[in-house]
Write a structure and sequence with these properties.
- The chain is mostly beta strands and 265 residues long.
- 4% of the residues lie in helices and 48% in strands.
- It contains two helices and 24 strands.
- Strands 12, 15, 16, 17, 19, 21 and 22 form a seven-stranded antiparallel sheet that branches.
- A hairpin with a 2-residue loop joins strand 15 and strand 16.
- It is globular and about 55 Å long.
- The two termini are 37 Å apart.
């Protein structure tokens, strides 16, 4: 099944930032400073250009919105809400193209899979296709900020006539769990081009212990039309979703989609 183009009559996907994502924030009750793990009693949150001074006890009734920002030391910083905890990323630095090694300081860095040259997976319209994402976190608490994939444009006109939906799905016993998405959002198809497609997540997510799946769903007015393909790697697997023919998800053993993560650790 290793060809220059692997076009299957199966599942594929796509993305955009109209932010039609389905996210439920659990109400935070504790604020944690990422650099040292210490609890913070209060934080400044910016909503609709207005600053609000909130304590940890206030946060359990606070509604996070699209565009909500957190200010720490008068600077806008990244944050994540997981269970009842709000994590404020106060001190991170960006490192490109490094492996996960032992280190002492909290770091933002990139994790990249090894590329398998000249092998591609085609993304067919109206079917879901995803790849497994699993990294060695060295048992450190890890958050994911963005995911990059490496497409080759095949039909720009078709691509821009469709809609791309992306889902981040939990790994349940080795298969994607489409019933309980971690994130689900649209990506602007006009941002997609040959080379690198940077997918900045609508919110930073905590890396699950069992990893996760990134799933693409290109929605178009005809089935089995493809407008782009993805570079691949032997270090992950592609999964196709077709309840009619497979009864759900099917794993392709040969290749997975090449990806790069930006993580906070």
């Amino acid at each position: 099944m290793k060809k220059k183009e692997i076009t299957t009559m199966l599942g594929k996907g796509i993305l955009s930032f109209s932010l039609l994502f389905y996210i439920t924030y659990v109400k935070a009750q504790t604020i944690i400073r990422f650099s040292d793990g210490k609890t913070i009693e209060s934080i400044v949150i910016k909503n609709d250009k207005k600053n609000e001074f909130l304590t940890s006890s206030d946060l359990k009734n606070f509604q996070f919105k699209e565009g909500t920002q957190i200010l720490y030391n008068n600077k806008v910083v990244d944050f994540a809400v997981n269970n009842d905890t709000l994590v404020v990323f106060d001190k991170v630095k960006e490192i490109e193209e490094v492996e996960i090694l032992n280190f002492n300081n909290k770091t933002e860095k990139t994790v990249k899979k090894t590329n398998q040259q000249n092998v591609f997976y085609a993304l067919n319209s109206n079917y879901q296709m995803g790849t497994s994402v699993q990294i060695n976190t060295e048992d450190k608490v890890t958050y994911v900020k963005s995911i990059s994939v490496f497409p080759v444009m095949k039909n720009k006109e078709v691509l821009e006539s469709g809609k791309m939906k992306i889902e981040i799905l939990p790994n349940i016993n080795g298969d994607p769990d489409e019933k309980n998405p971690i994130l689900s959002f649209d990506e602007d198809v006009k941002k997609i081009k040959t080379g690198t497609w940077l997918i900045t997540l609508p919110r930073i997510i905590k890396y699950p212990k069992n990893g996760f799946f990134i799933v693409f769903h290109f929605q178009y007015n005809k089935n089995n039309v493809f407008a782009l393909s993805f570079k691949t790697t032997k270090e992950s697997n592609v999964y196709y979703y077709n309840p009619t023919y497979y009864g759900g998800w099917k794993k392709d053993e040969s290749q997975g989609i090449l990806y790069k993560l930006k993580i906070l650790q």
